[in-house]
Amino acid sequence: MPRHSATPPPVTAGRPPRHSHLNVLTGYNRQRLLRLIDSMLATEHPPARSTLSEMMSEFFEHAIVHFEAESTWLTEIGYPDAGHHSQEHQSLVETFSDVCFLIMESHEAPWHAFLDQICIPLYHHLTEEDHKVITFLKAHHTA
C-alpha cells in the first residue's frame, strides 16, 4: 500500500477553519484507524501470525500518517495543548514499536498484547484526545 501524503491543510491567520481543517481530525486516516480497531476488537479468533503482521503494518502506516499530519497542524492552528498531544503521539508510536518487536520475537500468541497495548490506547486517543481538539476548533473558530 503506498504511503499517503501527511501534509496538513494550510492555516490562514484570522480566518475560520475550512472544512478541510477538520478533515485532519475526522478524515479518512482517522476513520480508517477506527474501522481497523473496531474490526480487530470484534475478531472472535486471533489471526495467524502472518495475518497479524500484515494487519500491524497497515495499522502502523495509518497511525503514522494521521499523527504526522495532526501534530504539524495542531501547532499551526495554535492549539494550546499541541505539545502534550504530540507527546502522546510519540508515546503511542514508541509503544507500538516495542510491542511489534515483542510480538515478532515471541513464541506465544501476541493478539492480546496487540489489542491491550496498542488498539485500546489508540482508540482512546482518537475518540477522547482528538475530540478535545474538535471542541477547541468549534469554540475558537466560529463566528
UniProtKB/TrEMBL annotation:
Q: Which UniProt keywords apply?
A: Iron, Metal-binding
Q: Which residues form a coiled coil?
A: none
Q: Which InterPro entries match?
A: Hemerythrin-like_sf, Hemerythrin_metal-bd
CDD domains referenced in this protein's UniProt entry, alphabetically: Hemerythrin
Q: Where is this region: Disordered?
A: 1-22
MF (Gene Ontology)? metal ion binding
Q: Which domain of life is it from?
A: Bacteria
Q: Which family does it belong to?
A: Belongs to the hemerythrin family.
Tell me what this protein is called: Hemerythrin family protein
The root-end lineage is: Bacteria, Pseudomonadati, Pseudomonadota, Betaproteobacteria, Rhodocyclales
